[in-house]
Amino acid sequence: MSPAMVKFENVSKLYGEHRVLTDLSLNVSAGEKLALIGASGSGKTTILRILMTLETIEAGCITVNDRPLLTPKVARLSPRRREAYLQEMRRDIGMVFQHFNLFPHMSVLRNVTLAPTLTRGISLNEARDQALDLLEMVGMENKASALPAELSGGQKQRVAIARALALKPKIMLFDEVTSALDPELVEEVLNVLRKLGSQTDMTMLLVTHEMSFARDFADRVLFLDGGRIVEEGPPEEIFRNPQQDRTRLFLRKIVAAGLSL
Ligand code: ADP
Q1: Whole-model pTM?
Q2: What is the pLDDT of residues 211-244, one digit of tens each?
Q3: What is the CATH number of domain 4-92+172-256?
Q4: Where are the domains of the chain?
Q5: Which residues are 174's β-sheet partners?
Q6: Would you say the CB of residue 17 lies under 6 angstroms from ligand 1?
Q7: CA-CA distance, 108 to 156, in Å (whole number)?
Q8: Could you tell me whether strands 4-15 and 59-64 are parallel, antiparallel, or unpaired per DSSP bridges?
Q9: Best mutation site among 12, 15, 230 for ligand 1, i.e. most ligand atoms within 8 A of its Cβ?
Q10: What is the four-CA torsion angle of 189, 190, 195, 198, rounded to 10 degrees?
Q11: Ligand 1 site, residue 43, Cβ cutoff 6 A
Q12: Using alpha carbons only, what angle is made at residue 247 by residues 244 and 250, rounded to the nearest 5 degrees?
């Protein structure tokens, strides 16, 4: 078993009075592809946002690559030192959101080269070569000089994936990256994820409603309900033979909604 790349220990998260995650413990191995599934509001996105340090937690510890990310020790650092430390930790983590958030006034190529040149001190030439390779990987090399407004949603999302990869993260987080797309554009983005999953050793956490995709893509599926992990296991087990009533009910609703498993 590979070492844990991401470790949540007894994590609780509240928004005001509202408890969103309760005593959640989770290990994700280096290189593992984990799919997070569950009804809307079950806490999936919150897990990713916490890992991006976009949210704080009320209890528990989180380590990434054996280094503290959110722990009492990190919380005790002065705000300035904590921000500097977290900035360094965030270098290992990339996220792609439901909405692509590309810079609208910049070309596709500049969207991908911007962060490496600004934050990593990489020369523009090197960043450009790397960006063109990444754009080729996502099938967008012929749109390098286009502006985001000239692209379809699926194309924008593929550029957003290339942009996140340009920072060479060890961990990639994908938050419902096909949910905002027209149905006919979903597959082109899923194909990029399939390719990434099979060709890289990055650790990937993916929130998705695409159950048949989760089934092919993930090494492990985790079903959340009300901020707790109800059940987890290899996709074949979770989808074919769920052990918990709540998982069965969730999967039945998916089938009833006409979505395949
Ligand atoms: P999921 O990704 O499974 O749909 P989320 O992690 O987005 O679930 O949300 C979990 C719960 O937290 C939901 O009840 C949601 O309404 C609540 N929530 C999410 N973000 C906020 C916020 N910024 N402020 C208050 N409540 C929030």
Answers
A1: 0.94
A2: 999 999 999 999 999 999 999 999 999 999 999 9
A3: 3.40.50.300
A4: 4-92+172-256, 102-168
A5: 96, 206
A6: no
A7: 9
A8: antiparallel
A9: 15
A10: 150
A11: yes
A12: 150
